[in-house]
């Protein structure tokens, strides 16, 4: 008897045995048969029609099943069976023909495509988890899963897939700006500097908390210092920044100095402040230099004439005329417009309040600037004291502004008030 004939006879006996086991409702034996990689495909195909969904799911997860069997199970009425199939297919090498017993790679791709659009999130999640670790997953398929509305679907591929490149992820970030998606990006291992910069630019506290705690993320010194300046307001960031590998001794000293100042200020309701000396401020507003130059001349003349009052500044802020406010604060504090802009975009309420103090504005106007110009939620703003005065000590406000080199020269006047300015508001 030839080998092929013997094999066919043996397979026939196993199929007959499968019938007998099914008739006897011996679920333990069926499980063993469905799981066994040596089980012939005709037996697996037969078991793919078993009444018990558990048996069908085990067949779906068996790598020895042929595409014929997989095609049958892809239409199974039970999501658990389809999820088992999705998990198996997503873990296969999708670039080498012959990865399946019958070598039909095209069918495998078609099934994966079908399962990626399954109406049940359970199925798409199983596929995403498997494809996240695949080196051969189609990039366009991963991108579509990354745009799925279900966090269990987009999460694994966004967080773990190495097939998705930095440009791929940057393009995806333009298409969706929701916090759960950004959090997954922020948790990626070895996240590069470009994506870190995009995340820092969002200003989202929850996302940046994830990013700070991702020690493999390539945060530049400039980003670290920017985040440290916001740590004045965000308690959980202080220790996390101090624990990051490679943090400079200078940053740690500044964190310690912040603790001492906050303690001296008697702020029992907050942990000590944290900030860091910042490297040179780059000017993102340079393309608009001519516009700001014109505003500076106009507003400087109004200040000199005494026609630019604090009430006008508060009204301008409330109307959302940010450029006018940036230039006005620049004139009143002596800081460049780029520095004022950067302080505002930190969305750090105390630092913004300190800038208003440095400009000679009232605490009431400082609250307006936090809300209207910096876009800080009312419940996150630093409020005035009951008597309407600034709630922070002068020494603390100077310390908050020192990283930006605002009021750090010989023009500092000792006492409770801010420094003398190049321009003063009319009394």
Weakly predicted, low-confidence segments: 1-10, 98-102, 266-285, 409-422
Radius of gyration: 32 Å
Shape, principal axes of CA atoms? elongated
Q: List the secondary-structure elements in sequence, H or E.
A: HHHHHHHHHHHHHHHHHHHHHHHH
Q: How big a fraction of the residues is strand?
A: under 5%
The overall pLDDT average reads: 80
Task: Compute the number of strand runs.
Answer: 0
Major beta sheet, specifics? none
Structural class determined from secondary elements: mainly alpha
Total of DSSP H or I helical runs spanning 4+ residues: 24
Helix content: 55-70%
Distance between the termini: 112 Å
Quick structural summary:
This protein has 427 residues and is mainly alpha-helical.
Describe this structure in words.
- By secondary structure, the protein is mainly α.
- Among the domains are: 148 residues; 119 residues, no CATH class.
- It is built from 24 helices and no strands.
- The radius of gyration is 32 Å and the shape is elongated.
- The N terminus is likely disordered.
Question: How is the secondary structure organized here?
Answer:
Layout: H1 3-24, H2 27-35, H3 41-47, H4 53-60, H5 67-73, H6 79-91, H7 105-116, H8 121-132, H9 139-146, H10 151-160, H11 166-175, H12 179-186, H13 193-202, H14 205-212, H15 221-230, H16 235-243, H17 249-264, H18 289-305, H19 310-318, H20 322-333, H21 337-346, H22 349-358, H23 363-373, H24 394-401
Helix pairs in contact: 1-3, 2-4, 4-6, 6-7, 6-8, 8-10, 9-10, 10-12, 12-14, 18-20, 19-23, 20-21, 22-23, 22-24
């Amino acid at each position: 008897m030839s080998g092929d004939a013997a094999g066919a006879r043996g397979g026939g006996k196993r199929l007959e045995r499968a019938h007998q086991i099914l008739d006897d409702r011996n679920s333990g034996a069926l499980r063993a048969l469905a799981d066994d990689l040596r089980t012939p495909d005709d037996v697996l195909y037969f078991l793919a029609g078993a009444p018990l969904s558990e048996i069908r799911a085990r067949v779906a997860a068996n790598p020895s099943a042929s595409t014929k069997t997989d095609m049958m199970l892809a239409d199974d009425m039970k999501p658990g069976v389809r999820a088992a199939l999705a998990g198996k297919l997503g873990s296969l090498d999708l670039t080498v023909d012959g990865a399946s017993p019958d070598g039909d790679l095209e069918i495998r791709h078609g099934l994966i495509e079908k399962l990626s659009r399954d109406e049940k999130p359970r199925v798409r999640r199983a596929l995403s988890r498997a494809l996240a670790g695949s080196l051969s997953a189609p990039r366009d398929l991963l991108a579509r899963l990354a745009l799925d509305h279900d966090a269990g679907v987009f999460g694994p591929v966004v967080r773990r897939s190495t097939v998705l490149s930095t440009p791929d992820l940057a393009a995806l970030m333009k298409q969706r700006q929701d916090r759960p998606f950004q959090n997954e990006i922020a948790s990626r291992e070895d996240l590069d500097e470009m994506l870190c910069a995009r995340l820092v630019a969002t200003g989202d506290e929850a996302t940046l908390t994830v990013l700070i705690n991702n020690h493999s993320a390539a945060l530049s010194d400039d980003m670290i210092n920017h985040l440290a300046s916001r740590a004045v307001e965000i308690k959980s960031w202080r220790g996390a920044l101090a624990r990051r590998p490679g943090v400079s001794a200078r940053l740690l000293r500044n964190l310690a100095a912040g603790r001492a100042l906050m303690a001296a200020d008697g702020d029992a309701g907050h942990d000590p402040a944290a900030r860091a000396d910042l490297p040179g401020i780059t000017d993102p507003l340079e393309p608009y230099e001519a516009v700001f130059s014109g505003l500076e001349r106009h507003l400087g003349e109004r200040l000199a004439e005494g026609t630019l009052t604090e009430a006008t500044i508060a009204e301008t802020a409330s109307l959302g005329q940010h450029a006018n406010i940036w230039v006005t604060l620049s004139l009143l504090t002596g800081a460049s417009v780029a520095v004022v802009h950067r302080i505002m975009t930190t969305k750090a309420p105390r630092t913004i309040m300190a800038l208003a103090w440095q400009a000679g504005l009232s605490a009431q106007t400082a609250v307006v600037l936090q809300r209207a110009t910096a876009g800080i939620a009312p419940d996150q703003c630093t409020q005035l004291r009951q008597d309407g005065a600034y709630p922070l000590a002068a020494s603390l406000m100077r310390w908050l502004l020192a990283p930006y080199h605002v009021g750090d020269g010989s023009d500092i006047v000792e006492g409770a008030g801010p420094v003398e300015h190049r321009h003063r508001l009319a009394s």
